[in-house]
Every structure is written in structure tokens, then in C-alpha cells.
Amino acid sequence: MVRPSNSLLGRVLLSAPAVWAALDLDINNDDSIKKAAALVAEDLMGYYNGEKPGEIPGLLPGPPPNSGDYYWWTGGLLWNTLIDYRNVTGDAKYTDSIVKGMAWQTGQKQDFMPANYSLDMTNSDQAVWANAALAAAMSGLPKPSSPDAADWLQLARNVVTEQSLRAVNSNGTCSGALRWAVLPMNAGYNYLDTNSNAGHFALAAALAHETKNDTLAKQAASGYELMTKIGLIDDKFNVFDGIRDDCKAVNQQQFSQNAGLLLTGSAYMLQQTNGDETWKKRVDGLVARTLEVFFPNGVAKEVACEGSTVDCVTDMKLFKGMLHRGLGVTMQLAPHAKDKILPVLKTSAAAAARTCANGKDQRLCSVYWASNSNQKDGATLGAAAQLDVLNALNSVLMASVQSGGSSSGAAGGSGGNGDAGAAGAKKDGPGSMGTATSVSTAAVFGGLFLGVMALF
Ligand SMILES: *[C@@H]1O[C@H](CO)[C@@H](O)[C@H](O)[C@H]1NC(C)=O
Ligand SMILES: *[C@@H]1O[C@H](CO)[C@@H](O)[C@H](O)[C@H]1NC(C)=O
Ligand SMILES: *[C@@H]1O[C@H](CO)[C@@H](O)[C@H](O)[C@H]1NC(C)=O
Ligand SMILES: *[C@@H]1O[C@H](CO)[C@@H](O)[C@H](O)[C@H]1NC(C)=O
């Protein structure tokens, strides 16, 4: 559970090559973006060993510090990124790997709590995988072949249900919020992190939309309101990291994946409610503030670590990709915001792709895109860099693709299609259940987390 900072890991300083940009990209041309994305994806999968003998399917090399840089949750991000890639490019090359890798990690109870990792599971970790499963359902990924395997939508449902119950078990002023850690003996059990709550929110909102389920829509709405009430989102739409369960002091650091998840969930709620004014304000507020905070000069930057004296640990290096995804999905679901979002996604993705000039083919990408990123950290190449850049390219392509906006009506709910339904969320729902929200991205702020906790 304690996730050590990268500085504990051996690192090699990689110097920037003199030769520029082997990765050819015209950011205004979809075919060019697709070609570049195919190369970035290929190099990403070059870091995936899950199909080699003796290796575990579904995961990138890890966990730190001894077995590799990547925690369990990163596998969920890997598959979600490739599901998006498949959806926006139509390239089905990785379909088998995605299905096999995700199916391997569903766990006995089909809730993404596999025994190997359940002891230090966080709600945010679990939500990353569940959100990937939901993306799989929405984009029509084939079901796992094993006859007793749950389908993707059911996996997402199982997690949302489980997490809603956990959220209700919290108590006090912050009652209804999800804790970071699932188990009481773990560090992080006394921390109510935005990552878990926003991950759950995004999951509940998207699932509500996909299955036309008013109960879930209501849960998602109360989850957002709770995050506002306890100060995780302020009235300027800053999104803070979390709060201790004594509910007294908010940790005001801002990490970009949290904003990405809140945007995703809010955009689904805007659709779900057929354009409700409250959700439109939230979407617009989050878009404006997110672009302001995380895209100085139009290029995504993890401002809490890049350009500061703190090294970005591996998890932090992955957030920019999730940020890009959140904005891309928002632009699909809330087309009125496209004029604000798309130009920034383009400048950022173009800057990201310009870093893809390393390695023997001079096309491996780097994590830091902003010219003033100022990081001493030499470990800039690797799966994290490929994931971020691929997400950035995917996000631009989302502008041209019919999205999750139109529900497939897959399974579930009233099977309605189109945007028919479910305005406000009413009916059943144990009204009190507050909602939980959890979101993707496992939090894991490594050494920083401990440092942060020490401040309280
Ligand atoms: C759990 O660990 C065992 C032993 O390393 C491995 O064979 C198995 O694939 C792992 N399962 C998952 C879901 O990672
Ligand atoms: C809140 O939960 C904690 C542990 O989860 C417990 O120790 C405490 O007694 C609870 N407080 C109330 C008011 O229920
Ligand atoms: C992409 O996802 C949408 C739904 O979000 C789906 O309708 C479409 O068929 C998918 N396209 C591909 C190529 O997977
Ligand atoms: C809607 O979601 C709620 C909460 O997850 C669930 O209990 C209920 O069965 C769902 N309703 C339908 C019709 O699927």
C-alpha cells in the first residue's frame, strides 16, 4: 500500500537525442494521427510481457520497487487506452490481448478484486479496471471466451454496487464518501481521496447513461454533490486531492486525472439528463478550470510535480493521459464545449508527439511535454510515456468519432436507445445511500502520500 517514490528505483539518465521527430504527425489530419498512434501503441505493447511464458496476463511489469515500475491499477489503464485506440482508429489488432488481459484480472467474484492484489486494494484501483470494463462494453469489445465469465457491463455493475455499499459505511460529516483503501489495516483507510470518489462517480454516471438507470444517476449526482460539500471540488472548480476522514482539512494538491474523471462523469450526467442546466454549468466550469490549471501554454503538465522540486512518481506520470481522455470524452458528450477543448488537445498532443524521438527507431516517447517541465527525473521513457501520448492522440481523434454519447443500450436497464430517457433520476434508490464515486486511477501517490499525510 505504501507506494515508494521513484527515487528509490534505479534509473538511467537518458539524454534527449539530437535528431528530431521520427514520429511524423500532422495534428489536423486524422489519417496522420492514426498512423502515429499505431506506432505509439506498438511501442507501448513492446513493454507488455503478459503473454510471455511465466508472466501474468493483464499487467505491465511491476509492482515496484523490485519487479518493475507499474502497480496493478496500471493494467486497467493500459486496456482502457487500447480500447479507446481501437474505437477511434478501428484498428482491432490488440483485441485478443485486451480481452485476455482484462479477463485474467477480474477476480473470483468478478469484481476486479483478484486475490493476489486484494490485500492492498484501493477503491481508486478497482474503479480504473471497472471503468475500462465499461469502456469495453460500450465499444462492443467481444466478451471473454470462458463460458462462466461475466460480460463487461456486469463487471462494471458489480464494482459500482460493491463500492456504493462501502461508501455508505463511512461515517461522520463526510459520510457517504469512499475511503482510499478498502481494508481498515491499510494506510489510506483514513483518507477520503478524490481519485476513488471521482472514479466511482464516473463509473456510476456512465453506467447510468448506458443502462438508463435512474437509481445510478441519482447516486452519481449525490456523489458529485458530496465532493462539493466536503470541499474536494471548490466553487472555482478546482479539484483537490482528498481529505482525512475526520473531515477537517482538505489536501489541496491538484492532480490532473481527478479533473479528467469528474469531467467524464459530469459529461455523462449532462447526456443522461438531456442537457440539465446544473450539469452544463459543472461541465463548463470544470472544462475552463482544468484547461487553465493543467495546460499552461496549451500543453498538458502535471503541475503538482512537473516544474516543482518534487519528482513525478510513476503514477503521477500516467495522469496526463487520463486527463486527455477525460477532455476527449467530454467533447464527444458535450459538443458545445468542443471549440474550447479541441484546440488545446491538439496543441498538447502535438507537443507530446514531438517528444517521440528516442530509442533505436527514434520514436519512443517521453513523459514530459512542456518545455518548462524542469524535471530532473531521467526515467522519462517507458510504458507510462507511451500510454500518455497514445491517450493524447486518441483524445484528438475522439472529435471525429461517434461516441459513447449514443448509448448502445447494451444489456441492462430499460434497453432504451437514443437519448430518451431518464431525466432527473428519481425513483427507487435507497435515497440515503449516498454515493460513492470512485474513479479510476489508482491513487497511489507514493512517497508523496506519506508526506501529505504528515502535514495533517
Ligand atoms: C496471481 O499470482 C500467481 C502466482 O504468481 C499467478 O500465477 C497468477 O496469474 C496471478 N493471478 C492474477 C490474477 O494476477
Ligand atoms: C466511524 O468509523 C470509525 C472506523 O471506521 C469508527 O471507529 C468510529 O467509531 C465511527 N464513528 C461513528 C460516529 O460511527
Ligand atoms: C466505438 O464506440 C461506440 C460507442 O461508444 C460504438 O458505437 C462504435 O461501434 C465503436 N467503434 C468501434 C470501431 O469499436
Ligand atoms: C439500477 O441500478 C441499481 C443500483 O446499482 C440496481 O440496484 C438496479 O438493479 C438497477 N436497475 C436495473 C433495472 O438494472
Question: Which characteristics define this entry?
Answer:
456 residues, binds 2-acetamido-2-deoxy-beta-D-glucopyranose, 3-stranded antiparallel sheet, mainly alpha, globular, disordered C terminus, 46% helix
- How many β-strand stretches? 3
Radius of gyration from CA coordinates: 20 Å
Described by strand count, sense and barrel closure, the largest sheet is: 3 strands, antiparallel
Task: Enumerate the spans where pLDDT stays under 50 for 5 or more consecutive residues.
Answer: 1-19, 404-456
Brief description of this entry?
46% of the residues lie in helices and 2% in strands. With 456 residues, the chain is mostly helical.
List the helices and strands and how they pair.
Elements: H1 30-46, H2 73-89, H3 95-104, H4 115-118, H5 123-138, H6 152-169, E1 191-193, H7 194-211, H8 214-229, E2 242-244, E3 250-251, H9 256-272, H10 277-294, H11 314-317, H12 319-333, H13 338-354, H14 383-397, H15 446-454
Antiparallel strand pairs: 1-2, 2-3
Helix pairs in contact: 1-14, 2-3, 2-5, 2-14, 5-6, 5-7, 6-7, 7-8, 7-9, 8-9, 9-10, 9-12, 12-13, 12-14, 13-14
